[in-house]
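Just wondering, does anyone understand these tokens?
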Amino acid sequence: MTDSFIPPTPSRADYLDNGPRKMGWLEADEPISLFQKWLAKAGETEPNDPNAMSLATVDASGMPDVRILLLKGLSTDGFVFYTNGQSAKGQQLAETGKAALCFHWKSWHRQVRVRGTVTPVSDAESDSYFAERARGSRIGAWASDQSRVVASREAMVDSVEAVEARFAEVDVPRPPHWHGWCVAPDEIEFWQDGAFRLHDRILFKRQNAGAPLSDWTKTRLYP
């Protein structure tokens, strides 16, 4: 029995209604600039947060964790995001040094998966990004004991008010435990939906661990 709230499998008519597929991306010979193009396209059509991504980590027992956050930087060094280093994900990143990312852009029927090693970005880079955040967000970074138990919403509000009072007359500096992380990709896989499961999956993989991020092999995978 199928639950009524789960959408049915697409019909032939549904696939034909999608219109012609963009196929030129299959000729790309490196993944970073291709990802930038896909992200820019997503920004034209996604209703909000085209830079949203799932971040997967593993805890000390081997249990996986996943959550959605925002990509805040991209270069040939990797994919950058920011978080509280004392949070569950911060501790898992520090313990394993590995993570996976997944971007899904429904409006383009596209997905990108990234796997790689993770290292903290420099203090200067973290300071620069933190200074760009709204004052309320900077206060929240100090007030939130992220991933830990809180007695009530009122307790959270009290914590915010205490931080506001602490920094009432000064700029809000970056908390030392709040910083950026960079995922240096070992693999980047691009996926585009195709009719009747004839999806296109292209995997870019660094030839050797520690090799420059310009050194990629490219293969096609069965969907």
The domain at 12-125+179-221 is CATH 2.30.110.10 (Pnp Oxidase; Chain A). Helices lie at 12-17, 31-45, 88-96, 123-132, 135-143, 153-166. The chain has a mean pLDDT of 89. The chain has one domain: 12-125+179-221.
